[in-house]
Structure formats: C-alpha cells, structure tokens
Write a structure and sequence with these properties.
Strand order of the largest sheet: 1-2-3-10-5-8
Number of strands: 10
Helix content: 25-40%
Radius of gyration: 16 Å
Shape: globular
Order of helices and strands: HHHHHEEEEEEEEEE
Structural class: alpha+beta
Number of helices: 5
Mean pLDDT: 91
Low-confidence stretches: none
Largest sheet: 6 strands, antiparallel
Strand content: 25-35%
Length: 185
C-alpha cells in the first residue's frame, strides 16, 4: 500500500477514536459498511471518492482538509510537483490539491479531472453551505446541484452553495479538467 493510503487510514482511525465511536457507530453515521471502514483504517483499501466525501461530512471537513492532515506541515508555496494527487480509478476521477493547505484559511483550489463518461455523485456536501466555484478549463461537464443541471463548456464558471447531493458528469468525448475553488461557510 502507498504511504498516503497508510497515513490516510491512520488518520481516519484517529478521527473515529477521538469521538469514541465504534466502527458500527461510524457505519450508521456514514452509510459505509463496518468492514469497508475497518479495511480503510488498516489501509487495506483506499476509500472511493464517494466514501471519502461521506467520511468528510461525518467529520465536518472538506476533502482537502482531511487529505492535508495526512501530509507534511504546509509551506506558503506548494510547487506543482509537490501537490498531492488522489485518484479514484474506478470512477475515472483524479484530484490535485493545488493550494498550500492551511487549517486556518477558508478557501482552497483543487484541480479535478474526469475521464470521458465519468459520473461522480456525492450524496451530501462535506460541510453544508460550502461555496464552490467550478471553472471548466477543458472538455464538457454537467454539474447537478439542488436538482438543477448546469451544462458547462471550456471557459465557463459555475458558482453555487452546496446543501445537498451533487453530481459531476463528463459529457464530452475528452476528459473534463476543471478548477474547483472551495470556500468554507
């Protein structure tokens, strides 16, 4: 298993222990099976994007915040080669944390890539009321939030607050590459 997966598993176990929750309690809160949670904490598997999003919601963190907690102490400049990349190969999703992580700041930039035909659904935001700016750099992307679907082409930018389920779908023949600016409420 890769080092980031080992650190992520350990951090997930710490977060659960800090709250005094059993695996069963976390399973009820997150909707993820106890066996999957146990395997993720032991770094036998890497959680999917959807599972990680659910855990972030339970723990009140954005995905970038959680992933930054398993990285080294942040510097004010994060060089391209050092930007953490996380992948969900089954979903066709690659996520790069562009901003230097900092627990005291509310905004962050993320680069997302969805493979042609990729369809990524989140059942809840990691933090209710999260502000997102989605700037599509390449490809075609449909973003659904609050039961409204927005079709984006290269150069388009969508701004929204996320309160419920969201869906990102690459609708074109090439990958969709976008910048996601996330601002905590």
């Amino acid at each position: 298993m890769r080092q980031p997966d080992l650190r992520l598993g350990a951090r997930l176990a710490e977060l659960r222990a800090e709250r005094g929750w059993s695996l069963g309690e976390l399973a009820e809160r997150s909707g993820i099976s106890r066996s999957t949670l146990s395997r993720a904490e032991r770094a036998e598997i890497s959680p999917t994007a959807s599972q990680l999003n659910r855990l972030c919601a339970v723990y009140g963190r954005t995905m970038s915040q959680l992933l930054s907690e398993v990285e080294a102490e942040p510097a004010p400049v994060l060089r391209s080669a050092d930007q953490p990349v996380w992948e969900d190969p089954a979903a066709g999703f690659v996520r790069r944390s562009v901003s230097p992580p900092h627990a005291g700041l509310r905004g962050e930039l993320v680069e997302g890539r969805l493979a042609p035909g990729a369809d990524l659904a989140y059942d809840r935001p990691p933090v209710p009321g999260l502000e997102q700016h989605i700037w599509l750099l390449e490809g075609e992307l449909e973003v659904t939030a609050q039961e409204v679907t927005h079709a984006l082409g290269a150069g388009d930018c969508l701004r929204l607050r996320v309160w419920g389920p969201t869906r990102f779908r690459c609708t074109g023949p090439q990958s969709a590459r976008y910048v996601l600016a996330v601002v905590l409420p």
